[in-house]
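Table S7 (text form). Paired inputs.
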Amino acid sequence: MSQPHQRRDDVRRRADVPERNGVRSAEQVALERAKGEVSDVLLNVEHALERAKKARKVVETDGADSNALHALAAAAADLDKARKRLLQDTYFAGDNLRLM
């Protein structure tokens, strides 16, 4: 049977977390992974925002569909709000817990 310290070593290796040689803890790895996921979402939101702005200009130039123009303007505003909120809540919130 393996000794307790050997099991802990196996867990550390499986989690790709270096031992206490000053690098990263499991919590730090998880936080970094979460930030990476948020970064991926932000990239998509920013792309969608730019696309909505571009589409709005095209629809505005054509002048054929005012409903589409208003919908694209609202979508761009909503995407911009979502982008700002995601940035603030993720990168600038510190340890504060967001309630709503």
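Next pair, protein 2 of 2.
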Amino acid sequence: MRSRTLLAAVLPVLAGCALEHGNAPPERSAARSPHASRDSASRPLHAIFDRRQETLAPGVARVVVYVVLKGPERDGVRATMEATADETRRDTTVAAVRVLGYLPPTPGHGDRGGPGLVPFAYLEWIPAGGWDNVTERTARAAHHTDVVFMDDLSAHPGSGRRGGPQ
């Protein structure tokens, strides 16, 4: 539960940290997932712009994947984030995954130091005990997936905000 509270507080900051000066990620660092979902025009529904892996023990790692989403359609966002997590889990050392999804700035924003990417949703694939308690023992135990949209966060259990456990 503490990890959700921390994530809720840190997610907006992560957007600023991941993108210096509020600008979109540089083209050279933006990478398309080879398994990115595509629409009828064959454009990717997301672009991965950062991936961080933390090794907790030999053969046990947590991964955070940062993605820019094409649009705010919830079913598409959920499917895109789940596909990104599925691809990440193909690495057998991965014991927990977070996918942090951002929307691009609206036209005219994000230029010249204005607001950059907008935090929109996150996905967690974690064992019992949560993100902060991944161990060699819990790494191969049952996991669950949770997708949370930022506008639903105040009512989400464990968010540490109104509507959830404190």
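The first helix runs from residue 2 to 18.
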